[in-house]
Amino acid sequence: MAIAIVIFALAVGFSLIGLLLKILKKPMKLVFKLFVHALFGFVFLFVFNFFGAWVDLSIPLTWLNAAVAGVFGIPGVVVLLILQII
């Protein structure tokens, strides 16, 4: 009887872990996508600052600025540049 309880507890535990992973799959995919976009935004800001140094334009390299640049692309960088100038 004790073996049946252990097997039942393991089955319920694995089922709950599987359900939790299925529920968290979409939000984790969204977080990963946001991280990748922020990383590309960070690289874009780095390149922008490299070439912007020739004309005295720069945007600080922070994760918030990188996220804005990654999510919104070039219009986000333009907005960051306008905010930097103001």
Shape: rod-shaped
* Cα end-to-end separation: 74 Å
Count of beta strands: 0
Oligomeric state of this protein:
single chain
Average pLDDT level: 84
Approximate helicity band: over 70%
Structural class computed from helices and strand pairing: mainly alpha
- As a whole number of angstroms, the C-alpha radius of gyration is 23 Å
What does this structure look like?
The chain has a domain at 26-85. Helix content is 85%, strand content 0%. The protein has helices spanning 2-52, 63-72, 74-85. It is rod-shaped and about 80 Å long. The mean pLDDT is 84.
Task: Please give a handful of descriptors for the protein shown.
86 residues; mainly alpha; 3 helices
Task: Offer a concise description of the structure.
The protein is mainly alpha-helical. It contains 3 helices and no strands.
Describe the secondary-structure layout.
Layout: H1 2-52, H2 63-72, H3 74-85
